[in-house]
């Protein structure tokens, strides 16, 4: 649950730059599995303390559901790990040039791009000149900027009017490779947590079966 919430809260800006929902779905599945774990933990304690076979049956089914959810999160993370590079190449540049600075409904995209460029010290999708194709740069709203101010090494208003390497992240390269590396590392965490917790659930299910068999059948 902690990993899922961390992904959705701390990394939500970057999620908005990805056209696929697989990354976010994996995090939601971890949160759901975490919530079920909390309920299951209480139920498991009650079943063990009261030694009731029916409660143990319910506990086993919930453990199985958690196991399947965690495996699903791990598989989704692995699948997205394989297709991330192509997706970023096809969509990140288009998203940055067509949606940046365009209307209030795309404000979250603008904020995400600004945060991306500042945190990873990059400018543009592949290179800083990508911004020449931006609808916002070509419009009057850019006020003569050649790149957004978030490309600047030191942000001050209208600093994007000067695109010299001493002023912007020009030689540092574009953001695709850096965002890809960041997300791939996080997908490894999601996948590892999903599969790791799933393995723990297998142990729980085995012990539940052992306890179930050791208890006498309840009278009808």
TrEMBL record:
Write the record's keywords in alphabetical order, separated by commas: Cell membrane, Glycoprotein, Lipoprotein, Membrane, Palmitate, Transmembrane, Transmembrane helix, Ubl conjugation
Q: Which organism is it from?
A: Ameca splendens
Q: Does this entry carry the keyword RNA-binding?
A: no
What is stated as this protein's family in its record? Belongs to the tetraspanin (TM4SF) family.
Q: Note the SUPFAM superfamilies from the entry.
A: Tetraspanin
Q: Which Gene3D superfamilies match?
A: Tetraspanin
* Lineage, highest ranks first: Eukaryota, Metazoa, Chordata, Craniata, Vertebrata
Which positions, given as ranges, span the membrane? 27-46, 58-81, 189-212
Q: One Pfam match, by short name?
A: Tetraspanin
Source organism, top-level taxon: Eukaryota
Q: Where in the cell is it found?
A: Cell membrane; Membrane
Assembly, in brief, is: Interacts with integrins ITGA3:ITGB1, ITGA5:ITGB1, ITGA3:ITGB1 and ITGA6:ITGB4 and with CD9 and CD181. Interacts (via the second extracellular domain) with integrin ITGAV:ITGB3. Interacts with ITGA3; this interaction modulates ITGA3 glycosylation pattern. Interacts with F11R. Interacts with RAC1 and CDC42; these interactions mediate physical association of RAC1 and CDC42 with integrin adhesion receptor complexes.
Its chief place of residence is membrane
Q: How does it sit in the membrane?
A: Multi-pass membrane protein
By what name is this protein known? Tetraspanin
CDD domains noted in UniProt: CD151_like_LEL
PANTHER family from the entry?
A: CD151 ANTIGEN, TETRASPANIN
The protein's matches in InterPro entries, at most eight in alphabetical order, are given as: Tetraspanin/Peripherin, Tetraspanin_animals, Tetraspanin_EC2_sf
């Amino acid at each position: 649950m902690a990993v899922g919430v961390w992904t959705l809260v701390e990394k939500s800006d970057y999620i908005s730059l990805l056209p696929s929902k697989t990354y976010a779905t994996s995090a939601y599945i971890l949160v759901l599995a975490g919530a079920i774990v909390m309920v299951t933990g209480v139920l498991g304690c009650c079943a063990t303390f009261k030694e009731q076979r029916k409660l143990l049956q319910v506990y086993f089914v919930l453990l199985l559901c958690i196991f399947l959810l965690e495996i699903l999160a791990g598989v989704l993370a692995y699948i997205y790990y394989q297709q991330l590079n192509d997706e970023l190449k096809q969509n990140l540049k288009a998203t940055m040039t067509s949606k940046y600075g365009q209307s209030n409904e795309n404000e979250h995209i603008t904020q995400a791009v600004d945060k991306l460029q500042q945190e990873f010290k990059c400018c543009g999708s592949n290179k800083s000149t990508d911004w020449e194709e931006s609808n916002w740069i070509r419009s009057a709203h850019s006020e003569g900027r050649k790149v957004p101010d978030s490309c600047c090494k030191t942000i001050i208003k209208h600093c994007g009017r000067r695109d010299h390497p001493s002023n912007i992240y020009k030689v540092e390269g574009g953001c695709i490779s850096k965002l890809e590396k960041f997300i791939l590392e996080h997908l490894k965490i999601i996948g590892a947590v999903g599969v790791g917790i799933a393995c723990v659930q297998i142990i729980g299910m085995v012990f539940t079966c052992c306890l179930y068999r050791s208890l006498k059948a309840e009278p009808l």
